[in-house]
Amino acid sequence: MSSNAYSGSGDDGGTPYTAGVAVVVCVLFVLALVRLARYILGPSSEAQQQLAQGRGDGEPRAEVAIEVRSSEPVVCAYRRGDGWREATCPVCLSDFADGEIVRVLLTCMHYFHAACVGEWLRRNTTCPVCRAAPPPPSPASSPVKSAFTA
Questions:
Q1: Is 94:86 a contact under the CB 8 Å cutoff?
Q2: Which of 39, 131, 150, 32 is nearest to 90 (CA)?
Q3: pTM for the complete prediction?
Q4: Which residues does the UniProt record annotate as the domain RING-type (predicted)?
Q5: Can you give the residue ranges of every domain in the chain?
């Protein structure tokens, strides 16, 4: 008879753990979606304000990055906790500071201080680290780019 008393309670023992695991999985899924949305949507409004204001000393920035096609570098703010692979600029060998503006080459995902890689990109079309070449521009992006070059 004692075996009948325990036969129904064997399934109830794992329920609190199953619910806890489900909650943790849901939270991790939501966090992953938020990070993916951040990555896809680009820099935050705070980073865009820093770009618009320049260095904060009243002088406008010398260079402005306009995203025209997928081969153009993306400008965003470096945040140490956001999972960046490297903490040092490969051009000047200085560490990136939180909130500092970096340029990311979408072809190879290497990133640099905006000022460090700017001169290189004016003279070359490849990445200074791996020499990866960007894909050719699409016909739709060429007229837009020519409108911004004087």
A1: no
A2: 131
A3: 0.41
A4: 89-131
A5: 2-41, 45-148
